[in-house]
Design a protein that fits this description.
The structure is a single chain. 49% of the residues lie in helices and 18% in strands. It is α/β, with parallel strands linked by helices. A 6-stranded mixed beta sheet has the order 13-12-9-16-14-15, sandwiched between helices. Helix 15 crosses helix 16. The longest helix is centred in the first third of the chain and has 24 residues. 55% of the residues are buried.
């Protein structure tokens, strides 16, 4: 049950006001979601800005609900929740929820705007004159705009940033005139609306399409909800409805639709501020639309690139990336035109480098950590993001087949034809991807991918954590275990010796191609050693090496 907005005093700026603001903003974005999606032409015409803003606000609202001590969806008790939650706790939770759930370029910027608000409203009291609610809110809006501009590598006017800056200026003027918090919010809302109407004249892509900026339109909705929450006046005037002038049925083609990087890469990152500074420089050289938001050790990274693997690897160098999402813009542009791809592949992979590799191959990757399994909802979401009539799902582990089957059933209810190829290892998934033929018939493609996966024997090296009985005998803590087709076949003292023993056993029944996937702490010299061993003893066998990245096993081996 959603939180029921409570009436506020015009100058009351407390935790309940933040909670009401969140509920109203989520509702406003829900109403405007499709309209905003429809006018999304910059920086990529992928018709998802409204959806991304809504999902970001939903994550923020859920975190705020938890801060009030209530699980999402339960009926809140305002009388006992309000005294336990301070303004500082509320705004920090609101900003944190947006940060960890930010989607797309617009959602990432919204998260940084909320962080700027939290930095002021959740910080230490300033000078006496700055403690007045109206003045405090004006300072918060100014900080929000400044931090948002700072988070974007190359700010462009005529966008959400321009609308945020105009809102801050208008709010600052009202705050300087001793206005109440509600006065400041109304001034910011009006300033944002006026700035939004001017965006088609500031950005050529908007002018050609005859629309206002989609992200700015969403921000107007959020600021309208803020004014409504503080004023108690309901309903607030609806935000500008998107189109500044009628959009022609067949718009002139925009160059941006056919140019620019092919992938969007988004991930959360645990890293120091110094490491993030270096990451910004590295990612800026890889692509565009770079936005890095957050702080205090947790960041949300968003970038458009042609090499998603390199973008993920840059995150690995900087710190610990997770919740990695790689989206191919070809799929998003088809969705923006209302057209589905005929066929797509969704692959579950245990390594960031593997996720990037699958993304480069055109698949939608779902990253899992060791010992963890994706939820059914995660796979359903990936199938929907693939936006295809037909989807081949590669679970990548025998223990994940039931989850994959459940996700496939749910997707079929949405009208998507889904087949699960029972891959039991990431290397089997790579073999299946190698023969994937999106132009052939669905049944033939599934049969070919299943045959390729089944013909690939898979091995893995792991380090024993304790003494244990295995199918190859008793192992001690620190021993290297060599698994073949899921069973321990070799127990060795080192990675190199065990890997050679595993390879020899796997090649004993023949093979034409060896695939090696190195873990994050395994040196390239091991791959070179194994490749030389294969060349010396098996002249007709080729070897290919990939880097699995963070979360991958020390070594995966495939023999086809």
């Amino acid at each position: 049950m959603p939180h029921e907005p409570q009436p506020q005093s015009p100058d009351e700026l407390d935790a309940e006001a933040v909670r009401t603001w969140s509920s109203l903003a989520l509702a406003a974005l829900g109403r405007a979601r499709e309209d905003i999606d429809a006018i999304n032409v910059y920086p990529v015409a992928d018709a998802d800005t409204g959806t991304n803003l809504y999902l970001t606000a939903e994550s923020a609202d859920r975190a705020l609900d938890e801060a009030f001590g209530k699980a999402s969806g339960s009926a809140p008790d305002v009388t006992d929740a309000t005294p336990r939650t301070s303004l500082a706790q509320a705004v920090r939770a609101y900003a944190y929820g947006a940060l960890v759930g930010a989607r797309g370029n617009s959602g990432t910027i919204l998260a940084q705007l909320l962080r700027g608000v939290a930095d002021v409203l959740g910080g230490e009291p300033g000078e006496p004159g700055e403690r007045e609610p109206g003045r405090l809110l004006a300072l918060a809006l100014t900080r929000a705009a400044e931090e948002a501009y700072g988070a974007v590598a190359h700010p462009v006017e005529g966008t959400m940033l321009t609308v945020a800056a105009a809102a801050a200026r208008a709010g600052e003027a009202a705050g300087s005139a001793a206005g109440t918090a509600a006065d400041v919010a109304r001034a910011a809302y009006d300033g944002a609306r006026a700035a939004l109407a001017e965006t088609p004249g500031q950005l050529a892509a908007l002018g050609r399409a005859g629309v206002v900026d989609a992200g700015g339109c969403g921000l107007v909705a959020v600021l309208g909800a803020l004014w409504q929450a503080l004023s108690g006046q309901a309903p607030a005037p609806e935000p500008v409805r998107g189109r500044a002038v009628p959009v022609p049925q067949t718009p002139e083609p925009c160059a941006q639709e056919d140019e620019g990087p092919a992938y969007e890469v988004v991930y959360l990152l645990e890293a120091t501020e110094a490491a993030v500074g270096e990451l910004r420089e590295r990612l800026d050289g890889l692509g565009d639309s770079l936005v890095v938001v957050g702080g205090e050790g947790l960041w949300n990274v968003h970038v458009h690139v042609d090499d998603p693997g390199a973008a993920v690897e840059a995150g690995v160098v900087a710190g610990r990336p997770y919740r990695i999402r790689i989206t191919h813009f070809g799929d998003e542009r088809r969705r923006a035109r209302g057209a589905r791809a005929q066929r797509a592949v969704v692959a579950v992979v245990p390594g960031e480098g593997l996720a990037g590799l699958c993304g480069e191959a055109g698949a939608t990757a779902v990253l899992v950590r060791p010992g963890q399994a994706p939820a059914v909802a995660d796979l359903v979401d990936a199938i929907r993001r693939a936006h295809a009539r037909e989807v081949v799902l590669l679970p990548g582990g025998a223990e994940l087949r039931a989850i994959a089957a459940a996700a496939a059933e749910r997707a079929r209810a949405d009208g998507v034809r889904v087949a699960v190829v029972p891959t039991r290892s990431a290397v089997q998934g790579l073999a299946a991807l190698a023969v994937h033929d999106p132009e052939g018939s669905f049944d033939e493609d599934v049969v070919a991918m299943t045959a390729a996966a089944g013909a690939t024997r898979y091995g893995e090296l792991a380090v024993a954590e304790r003494q244990s009985f295995t199918s190859a005998g008793i192992c001690q803590a620190g021993d290297v275990l060599g698994l073949i087709d899921g069973d321990v076949a070799v127990i060795g003292p080192s990675l190199a010796e065990t890997a050679v023993a595993v390879l020899e056993r796997m090649l004993g029944s023949g093979g034409e191609l060896v695939t090696l996937v190195l873990g994050p702490e395994v040196p390239d010299t091991l791959a070179e050693h194994l490749e030389a061993h294969v060349q010396h003893g098996h002249l007709a066998v080729d070897t290919v090496t990939y880097h699995g990245g963070r979360y991958s096993a020390p070594l995966l081996i495939g023999v086809e």
